[in-house]
Amino acid sequence: MNGSAGGQIDSVMQEARVFPPPPEFAARARIGSMEEYEALYARAKNDPESFWGAYAREELHWFEPFTKVLEWNEPYAKWFVGGKTNISYNCLDRHLESPRRHKAAIVWEGEPGDQRVLTYDQLHREVCRFANVLKHLGIEKGDRVSIYMPMVPELAIAMLACARIGAVHSVIFAGFSAEAIAERNHDAEAKLQITADGGWRRGKVLPLKETVDQALEKSPTVQKCVVLRRVGNDVTMKEGRDYWWHELMEEASTDCPAEPLDSEHPLFILYTSGSTGKPKGIRHTTAGYNLYTKKTFEWVFDYRDEDLFWCTADCGWITGHSYIVYGPLSAGASVMMYEGAPNWPAEDRFWDIIEKYRVNTLYTAPTAIRAFIKWGDEHVEKHDLSSLRLLGTVGEGINPEAWMWYHEKIGGGRCPIVDTWWQTETGGIMMSPLPGATPTKPGSCTKPLPGIIPRIVDAQGNDVPVGHGGWLVIAKPWPGMLRGIWGNEERYVEQYWSKIPHCYLTGDNARVDEDGYYWIMGRIDDVINVSGHRLSTIEVESALVSHPAVAEAAAVGRPDEIKGQAIAVFVVLKDAEPSDALRDELRQHVRQEIGALAQPDDVRFTTALPKTRSGKIMRRLLRDIASGKETVGDTTTLEDYTVLAKLRGDEE
Ligand code: WT7
Prior knowledge:
Elements lengths: L22 H6 L5 H13 L1 H12 L8 E6 L2 E6 L2 E2 L1 H10 L7 E6 L5 E5 H17 L7 E5 L4 H13 L2 E4 L6 H11 L3 E5 L2 E3 L2 E3 L1 H10 L6 E5 L13 E3 H7 L9 E2 L3 E7 L7 E6 L1 H14 L7 E4 L6 H13 L3 E5 L10 H9 L3 E4 L1 H10 L2 H4 L8 E5 L5 H11 L6 E4 L33 E4 L11 E6 L9 E2 L3 H9 L6 E9 L5 E6 L4 E3 L2 E3 L1 H9 L4 E11 L3 E10 L6 H15 L7 E4 L13 H8 L14 H11 L1
Parallel strand pairs: 4-17, 6-7, 6-8, 7-14, 8-11, 11-12, 16-17, 16-18, 18-19, 19-20, 29-30
Antiparallel strand pairs: 1-2, 3-13, 4-5, 9-10, 14-15, 15-23, 21-22, 22-24, 24-25, 26-27, 28-29
5'-O-[(S)-butoxy(hydroxy)phosphoryl]adenosine binds next to helix 11, strand 20, strand 24 and strand 25.
C-alpha cells in the first residue's frame, strides 16, 4: 500500500467559501439548525442502541419484535436481533393503508421518450405477481438470483420480489461483459437469471439477452432465465431454460404475503471491484440496511411527501439500491427513474426531464457534472429548472469549481448541495451536510451523520492533528454496514478490520479542518509522495479544474529518482487546443494555487479519461501509463478500451 509508511498526508488545498443553508429552506426542513443536528448526533453517540432501537420500532414493520438492538462481536454485527421483518413489506405494504396508496412510487421515462407511472398500489401488485413467478420457478428463501437489466421499472420489481420471498439478489450493471456476469454468477452460485431482450443506450440497442446467453454458457449453477421484452429485438429463447416475463406474469396471482425474515437475513450481494483481482461480493442484510437507508434518505434529502426525487445512478450500483429503491420507497417517496444516457438525443436530456416532471431533488455524480460543464451552458439555459430545491453529489470528490457551477447553473444559487460520502460497503450515506442545517464548503462532505463515528489516523492508529490528512476509519458499527464478503470471510477481516484495531478501514484518506469538516483526499493507494510530502490526488486535480481551459483532470504519481515520485497529470480540455504554452500555464497555475511542491512534472492532454463503469477515474491504469509500464490486473471495469488505446497512442 502506497500510503502505509506513515499514514499522514499533507494538505495544500485552501477553500474559504462557506454557504449557509438558505433561511427559507431551513425554516421548513426536518432538521433546521446545527443545534438540532448536534443534539441528534450527541444522542446517537451517547446511546446508539436506544437511538437506533427507537427508530427501528417506530419506522419498520415487525412480524416479530427484536429482543436486542445490537450484538457486536467484532468485526461481526447483528442488528435488531431476534426480529422478523421484510423490506419489501416496508417499501410497499406499509403504505397501502396510508394516503400514499395511490401516490406515484416510480415515475419512469425510457430513453426513446416513453413514460410510465407506477403507484404504490400498482407496484405492490406487480411485485407480488413477480414474487409468485419466482416461487413458480422454484426459487426459495436464500437462493441467489442474478439480475442483468436495463433501467426499467421491472428492475426494481425484480429486486423487491426477491426481497419479498427472501431470495438474495445480485444486480449486475447492464454494461458488464458476459465474462463479468459469469464470474459473478459463479461466485454467488446464482440459480436464476433475470434479464431483458435489450435496453436502449444512445439510440442503439444493447443486446442484453445475447450477452446473457454467452454468460450462461459459463454459469453452470443458473438453471433458468426470465426475459423481459423491452426493445423487441430478436433473441434466441432456449427451450426449458428461458421464459418470457410477460407470459409468466399472465398466470401469476397478485396475492403474495411478504415472508417474515430474520433481521440478519441476507438481502443482496453487490459486487465491487477492488483495486486488484477478483471482485468482492459485498453482503448486506435486511433490517439494519432497511432502517439505515430510510433514515439517511429522510435526513440528507430532507424528503417531503410532495417531492419528486431523482437519483441518476443505475440500480446496478449501491447508489441505485439504496437511493432509488430501498431508502426512498421505505420512506414513501416518489422517485424519478430514467433509462438512458444524459446526452441523448441531445446534451440537455436531464434538464428536459427536470422541467417536464418538475423534479425537486437531483442526486448525481461529479463526473456527470464535469461532462455537463464541458458540453456548455446553453443546454441548461434552455430549460426551466425552478422546481429544483436540493442538489446532491456522490461517487467521488467534487472539485470546488464544479461545485460552484452546479450551485449557480443548476441550483440557480438557491439550492443547498449535499456532497455525500459513502461506499458500497457502508450501505448508505455516512457523511453529508444536512441541507437545512449545515453550512456547506465546496469540496467538503462536511460532517458525519448521527450514529457515525469517524476518526482520522496514521498507520499506527493514532489520531492525526487537525488539518493533517490520514486514513479515514469508522470507530463504531452502524446499522447499514456490510456484514461480510460473500464466500470469503477472511477477506472481510483482512481488508477492513486488520489494519487499525477496532476500526473499519474505509480505504480513503481524509482530513478534518478546524471547524470539524471532513475533506476526502482520495483512495489510500492513490497518494502521491513528492520528496517526502504526501499529496492528495483530489487537491491537485481541483487546482487544475479551477483553470478555465480545463474540463477534467487526473493526477497520479510516477517513480522519480530524486523526489521519490513525480506528479503526472492527465488533462481533458474544454475546447482549447493543446499546446506547450498551455502546458506551462497549467503547471504555473497549480504552483500558484497550491504551491511549488504540487507543480506537475508531466502534463498530458487527452480527449477523455479512462473510467470504471461507475465513473471513477482509473488511476492505476494512468499510473502505469505515466511510468511507461504495461497495464496489469483486472481491467474489466474499463468504460471504453479505446480511451486507453488513445492515451497509449498519445504517448508514442
Ligand atoms: C468510494 C466508494 C457511495 C456510492 C457510490 C460509490 C469515493 C464516494 C464520495 C464523496 C469523495 C467519494 C470514495 C469511496 N467517494 N463518495 N462524496 N467524496 N469521495 O460507491 O463504488 O463503493 O465507491 O467512492 O473513495 O471510498 P463505491
